[in-house]
Amino acid sequence: MKFQSFLIKYGEIGIKGKNRYLFEDALVRQIRFALRDVEGEFNVHKAQGRIYVDCEAGYDYDETVDALKRVFGIVGICPVVRLEDKGFEELKKEVVRYMDQLYPDKRITFKVEARRGRKSYPMRSMEINCDLGEAILDAFPEIRVDVHHPDVLLNVEVREEIYLYSEIIPGPGGMPVGTNGKAMLLLSGGIDSPVAGYMISKRGVGLEATYFHAPPYTSERAKQKVIDLARLVSRYSGPIQLHVVNFTDIQLYIYDKCPHDELTIIMRRYMMRIAEHFAKEDNCLGLITGESIGQVASQTMQSLMATNDVCTLPVYRPLIGFDKQEIVEISEKIDTYETSILPYEDCCTIFVAKHPVTKPNVSVIRKSEERLKEQIDELMQKAIETTETILVK
Ligand code: ATP
Ligand code: MG
Fold first, then answer.
1. What is the pLDDT at residue 17?
2. Closest CA to ligand 1's atom 6
3. What pLDDT does 14 receive?
4. Cβ neighbours of residue 374 under 8 Å, at least 6 residues apart?
């Protein structure tokens, strides 16, 4: 079967009223963006409260559907057969052919649902339903009608041309990126943070990212892995500005001056401070991390409190109540898992203490940080100034 268009179904919740067109325009924009590298020519347009993707002959069906499946805001993707209107008898034949090709096994129930966008069409919707239903029943003795719970709901839309569709391929849901501002993701090479970025972006939020590396303790390959992860996430979120911060001197300085059981927490606090600096510079409205309560020592309630202590922007932690297995399942779904498990070193694991505090006290940690006052401002400044920014798409 050849499909010439896709009808895009999107969720209605939260987009009623005067903001609806903003939502739709953002969705059209994101669809165009998602299709820019797909083989073929596409015309994405709004018509009568719907969004259509019209495809030129020779486009790649699988690639197109894959790209649409990554556009947040899309709930369903319906492949459409577009027919020239050559009269009702011809339409009957086409509809029978459509059913025959799409549903080789005829032990199914169906219902026809016609809509007239073109009111001048000589038949009313009810008549179209009955007559096309009859033609299908005549053609296939095994098929049955079920008007309440049909296996196949055959939509027939009479527009300038006639549109037939019955299949709905699930989309990712969520809101189109760009309808909810931008946030800064703390992106490491692990499993969690790419998933956290995906989840916040799903609600319509554009992403930027910050990665802390510690050369020569962490390698170029570890950095490349993070760039690759950013690229995988950007297939959903759109382009990501990735800030790569050289964190080595700060880490060594903390290692030198602070109690070793507090290293991870203090390091995390400096990561948050630097990520927040870039976030504010680039108009991000919050920070995102892949933290989940109790996953490791630095993610107990007390540790999260100590980390949060240095942030003035809200910190979004979409995985906060997830078990590791649930996070792994999402990372497999969005294709980041295989990259995340590549075994390169991480700056957090290199300077880690054998017995980190699990219940840090905020005032104790603040006190320990006072030991850094001589050089830390200068080191922070240097880390910020030497940060490399990469546009990932
Ligand atoms: P992940 O799988 O995302 O690496 P994790 O289980 O390794 O998480 P931690 O190392 O405690 O957990 O990190 C918690 C969060 O802190 C990460 O999800 C990420 O948002 C941020 N983070 C940790 N290390 C880095 C890093 N090197 N660069 C940027 N962000 C980081
Ligand atoms: Mg990590």
1. 76
2. 192
3. 56
4. none
Instruction: Judge if the beta carbon of residue 297 lies within 6 A of ligand 1.
Output: no
The CB of 318 under 6 Å from ligand 1? The reply is: no
* DSSP code at position 349: H
291 lines ligand 1 (CB under 6 A): yes
For the chain of 393 residues, list the mean pLDDT of each consecutive stretch of 10: 94 71 91 93 89 93 96 96 96 97 97 93 95 97 96 95 97 94 97 98 97 94 97 96 97 95 95 98 97 89 96 98 97 97 76 83 96 97 98 95
User: Which of 185, 186, 264 for a ligand 1 pocket mutation test, highest count of atoms within 8 Å of Cβ?
Assistant: 186
What predicted TM-score, i.e. pTM, was given to this entire model? 0.92
Q: Is the CB of 290 under 6 A from ligand 1?
A: yes
Q: What is the DSSP letter of 260?
A: G
Look at residues 226, 260, 258, 213 and name the one whose alpha carbon lies nearest to residue 387. 213
The domains located in the chain, with CATH, are: 5-170 (3.30.2130.30), 182-392 (3.40.50.620)
Neighbours of 40 (CB within 10 A): 14
Model pLDDT, residue 223 = 96
Ligand with minimal distance to 217 CA = 1
Which residue's structure tokens are 């995988």?
232
If you take atom 17 of ligand 1, which residue's CA is the nearest one?
290
Q: What are the structure tokens assigned to 207, written together?
A: 């992403």
Distances (CA, A) of 291 to 46, 125, 314, 326, 369: 40, 54, 14, 13, 23
At 5 the pLDDT is 96
Amino acid 15: pLDDT:
66
Ligand 1 neighbour 322 (Cβ under 6 A): no
Distance, CA of 223 to CA of 246 (rounded, Å): 11
